[in-house]
């Protein structure tokens, strides 16, 4: 069975084809990072307009790459939410129009389920059940996953998502948008122990987390350095990056260990953009459980995870009818 997947929830346009026999056979992506960088963040209207320009050529390129004809497809999956309303509408309208014109069924996909299942696109795939750490730009959640569609929320950030904290901290350190990846590169050059930041909610006796205070702690440290020296030199900035990253990674790794203990599961899946972080990977790989990450290129938004999640929900495929998007849409109700 062949499923075309379309992602347009934020600032990446992704189109991919997943074959249930052969795996991923086409994967095209355009990131708008350069376009939004000059504004220091995603400008929703620009994002929507750019998706409109990209969807047709990317779909053509994806079909060519996979040597597949539109008629060969069994279903068209698309991200229905959560995300930016206008951006979601572009992919949703395109997917439904394409399906209607070619008499194919559609499968609306939850973006976070896409992230959550993306490690199954790696060579070394996890098996159910597993604990999932979903760490992206908009979400930080720990889940117990016992099957496709069987997700239980064990804990989550009560304020900023980890990726958001990385980006905001990057911004206040003067790094270009999006600051997360850049901050983690600079952390490699940092000296350990010079800056100790708080580990919020480390001992909260639940699996919830908080990252917004950490950003304030970094701001306070930056201000102190500026007061004393007038400026933050490169080495100091790198040391702050390392201190910040260590604090986030400490909290994530502690909470994940607690979740593994609580569930008794011995597999861990890490998904979402922050899953690309080298320190988090290093730390979690030391745990005495099997740890699965998506391929690096599939950590951030992409069409492949939507095509894959769509393929896992082929039984939910439906004829094109009225469609809507769900900009706010929890994957599972909060406990
Ligand atoms: P969501 O999926 O919750 O709607 P999103 O789609 O914006 O949010 P992703 O695309 O999964 O999130 O991930 C983007 C986030 O990952 C950004 O916040 C980015 O800074 C962060 N990120 C990417 N690479 C790294 C890295 N190496 N270290 C830390 N953070 C990173
Ligand atoms: Mg993005
Ligand atoms: Fe995402």
From TrEMBL:
It catalyses: L-threonylcarbamoyladenylate + adenosine(37) in tRNA = N(6)-L-threonylcarbamoyladenosine(37) in tRNA + AMP + H(+). Its EC number is 2.3.1.234. One of its GO terms (molecular function) is tRNA N(6)-L-threonylcarbamoyladenine synthase activity. Coiled coil: none annotated. It is found in: Cytoplasm. Its cofactor is Fe(2+). Binds 1 Fe(2+) ion per subunit. Keywords: Acyltransferase, Cytoplasm, Iron, Metal-binding, Transferase, tRNA processing. Pfam families: TsaD. The keyword Secreted does not apply. Fe cation binds at residues 111, 115, 301. Belongs to the KAE1 / TsaD family. This is tRNA N6-adenosine threonylcarbamoyltransferase. It comes from Vitreoscilla massiliensis. The lineage of its organism: Bacteria, Pseudomonadati, Pseudomonadota, Betaproteobacteria, Neisseriales. The gene is tsaD.
